[in-house]
Structure formats: C-alpha cells, structure tokens
Design a protein that fits this description.
Strand content: 25-35%
Distance between the termini: 74 Å
Number of strands: 37
Radius of gyration: 27 Å
Shape: globular
Helix content: 10-25%
Structural class: alpha+beta
Number of helices: 14
Length: 596
Amino acid sequence: MKHERPDIRNVAIIAHVDHGKTTLVDAMLWQSGIFRANETVPERILDSLALEREKGITIMAKNMAIRYRDVKLNLVDTPGHADFGGEVERTLALVDGVLLLVDAAEGPLPQTRFVLGKALEAHLTPVVVVNKIDRQDARPREVLDEIYDLFIDLDATEDQLDFPVLYTDAKRGTATEDPRVPGRSLAPLFETLLRTIPPPRSDPEAPLQILIASLGYDNYVGRLAIGRIVNGAVRPGDRVAVIKRDGSVEPAKITLLYTYEGLDRVEAAEAAAGDLVALAGLEEIGIGETVADLERPQPLPPIRVDEPTVAMIFSASASPFSGRDGQFVTSRHLRERLDKELLTNVSIRVESTDSPSASRVSGRGELQLAILIETIRREGYELEVGKPEVITKSVDGSLLEPMEQLTADCPEEFIGAVTQRVGARKGQMLRVVNHGTGRVRLVFKIPTRGLIGYRAEFLTDTKGTGLLNHLFDGWAPWQGDIRGRATGALVSDRDGQATAYAIDHLQPRGEFFVAPGDPVYEGMVVGEHTRDTDLPVNITKEKKLTNMRSSTADEAIQLVPPRRMSLEQCLEWIREDELVEVTPKALRLRKREPSA
C-alpha cells in the first residue's frame, strides 16, 4: 500500500527557450506572498547567473518552494535550450508532474518536443499552459491543436492526453481557462496544479532512498547533494550509505539537512518521502547516485542522460601573449577546472588526448560548450580551443553521424535564400508551414556539422529577422563532405601594434578584426581575406617620415570599423588549422602553426 503526502506537489516547468518560464515563475512567487510589498526584486529573479541575464536564457535548473492553501509547491525552473538538455533530464527525476509552457503565437517548437518527450517517457502528469495570450499575433486555439498533435506524435497515453489547459499572461500575472475571459490572478493555475499533479507516493515499508539529481556548494558547509527522498525519512546526524554508479557502497554521515522555502534553503530537523532536500557532509557523492539506508542499501535507477554530439579540444594557451590577462594559465589548472565541471554537469565528457596540455571536451552542442568556455574565462583562466567537430560512431561497418531537426522561422521573402544555404549543407526540407501572417516555418533534417557556422549566415540572409532552432534527431549514414568557410584569413607576419596606415592600405584585401593600436603577433589572424586563400600581411607598417610637407596627405585615411566577434561567432568562423585564444579580457584568433 503506497503512502501519499497530500501537503506536497513537485512540479517542473518545461518549455522552449524564451516562451516565458522564468517570467511566469516570478509572477507565481509574487502572488504566493513570499516577497514584502515594498521589497525590491529584480526581473527574472531565478536567472541569477550573470551569463543568464546577459543572454536572456536559463542555463542551470533551479528549485524553490511556495505555499498555497497549506500545500507546499516545489517548483523547478528548467533551461529551454536543447544544448542544456542534461539539466532537464536530471530535473525530471525530482518531480511528479510538469507544467508545459507554450507561446500563444509561436506554438510548439523543437525544444517543446524534446522536453515533453522526456516528461511523457517518465510517465509524468502534464498541465498545459498557453502563455503570452496578450501578443497581437496570438492564436491560442490553433496552438492548442498543434499541442494535441504533438502529444499524439509522441505516443502519449490516454490519461496523458486528458490534460487541463490554461491561458496565461505571465507579465501581468493572470491565468484563465477561457481565452475570451480575461484572468485576474494566477489562482486558476495554482488550483489546477493542486487538482491535477499527483502527490508524492512512497512505500512505508521501504528503507531510506534519496536520488541525487544536482550538486551545490556552500562556503560554510561545503558540497551539497540535492535530491528527492523517494522512500523513508532522514535527519541530521544519520549514518547512511552512498551507492555509487558502479554499485559500490560507501558509508557516510549527514551533517546538515536543508529543505526549500521560497528561494532560500532552510535547515530542517527531519524530512520524509516526497521532500526535495539538500544534504551536507557527503563530500564524495556524484549526480545520479543513491543515498540509502546503511543496514539495507537499495539503489534507485540512475539518471540516464543523452550522449554528447559535439566535441572540442581545450588546451593551455601557447600564445606569445599567454599570462598577460589570466590568473590560471597552465594545463594543470585547466584540467582541474574541467574535472570540477564534471562534478555538476552530467551532460559533458572530458577525455585525455595525445598531448598532455590538451583535453577533448564533448557536449550537446556549440552553445553549451561556448557557455562553458565563457564561464571558465570569467574565472580568470586562459585557454585555446579548436574548431567544434561532430562525434561519429561506426555500426556494422558503416559510419554514422548525428542529425538535427532544424526549424527556421523567417519572413516569406527569404525562403529561397534559406533553402539554398541549408541545401548546400546537406539539409533536406521536411515541411513548410505558413500561418498567413507573412512569416513561414521551414523544417529541415540536417547533419549536426552542417549547423556549425550557419547561424551567422542565417541572420545575414534574413536581415536579422529570422529565428533558428534545432534538436538532435538521431543518427544517419555519413552525408558526404560539406564545404566550410569560403574565405581565407589575413594573418599577421610579425609582432607589434596594428597601425592605421597599414590597415588603410590593406582594406581592399578584406575585413579586419583589429583596430589601430591593438597588439598583434606572428601567426595571429587579424582579418578575413576576400579570396579563399590565407594572406600574410604586415599590419604594423608605419608611414615613413620625410622632409616634404603636404597639408592633405593624412586626411584621406578612412578606416572601416573592425568586426568584433563574440565567442560563439569565433568558434563558428575558424577552420581546422585555426584556434580561438580565450583570455579574461580578450578573444583572439590564431593559426595553429605560428609561422605565417
């Protein structure tokens, strides 16, 4: 006989990127009363990382608890980008139901399919919320039909298809069951969650079992193991067993026990089955392992995470400028930092290479690895990274490569340009959807390596008006060669400082990445050549002084502003023989071999 906890509901909020998850959580927090009326609270309070605020996306899953009518709602906000799918997969192990959020205008997009598929596989109870009904181009009825189609396409059971639907405006904090009747608060949403999401169930006869789904760190108590109590109860000071992934059992002691109230962790004297807890004292524990009863240790099924599809080589910086900006510059520092990342990030892999100074890092996609590099550089590290490459595998003698489902949303007039570019990258069109609003949705199947470097081209072709999303779509036979960058590089042939005089004379040769006064070195890529070959240039050349005077000689210099690329753009731009040099203060491109 299963025991229920009617005073708790565990819910994950899942959606495609930028459909309003974090904004809705803000409104739920305000209306639950955890903030004072005069309290200053930033927007998207859960996006606490600097990178999350800069990019406007959620990168790390975070949990908090609110109380509504004597019921504790444990809410988990998950990332909406496919590259951070590992966060979603381990989060779903904590909950009994999901709140699926879909934009009232855009409808279900690739990541909606991904997160919903994972939730249905885990047999979680869904509640569907159609958000942003205040948009001028909102089409809630059609979007609901698309959601039903998606559920059916993902082989949802009859019980899962019988989901409640709410229409929300997260910015105003309103919810309604009928889009024609404006909502007044989020009370209908809270009521629906309590009514629909099942309470946690446990076996009263079973020994203690806690599945660890996340790791945190506290400056005072050290590492925190965050997870859900599946069976049993736990108290501070308890002796427990930690069951590793390989089946080995290690004894441990819980020194402190925390539960969640609002956005804070609070110390607790006891926690029982169904609670989400953070445990201190378990220094050697990892994600996916089980905290169990010391006398009767029984493991839980480990968290299964999809395999990585993209890899890059991270190495210690060998640049002549190495050590100027960063605090950590050696290969030992870099490897220690990558090993530390493995403790909290379940979806990346780190492998040794033939070179002692380099490591091969594999992840879900370019964006995930770019975020990792950006995080590391902000901590004071210097490193070099190579061009992203796809991970292939061999089955029955045939070479397979990862494929992606690519969804391009753009104005009608750009269909030709987008189709032509994707076709050149071995993409095959699956369908075209035209809602009659002037914008169309193109769906392609394309090799993962065909996407590397495509985002910048897409934004240029659509004049910045297009939206691009992709999702891993299985493995397929090798699709053949894909042509890379069509242009060569302008490479500095000596050390020094870039001068306006040299750049002015070299401008017809291509577009520059450096400005006058920037330091350069031999082998550094300073621009993009107009032709497909690399060109060594002397960008440090100065004007020779003479006794002849001319009042207009220097007035004719007009320099085109340099192109300053972001980290993602640098990774997309480079070829196999080039590297991105990453420091806390600068991004530079260079050739692998320093001689130009």
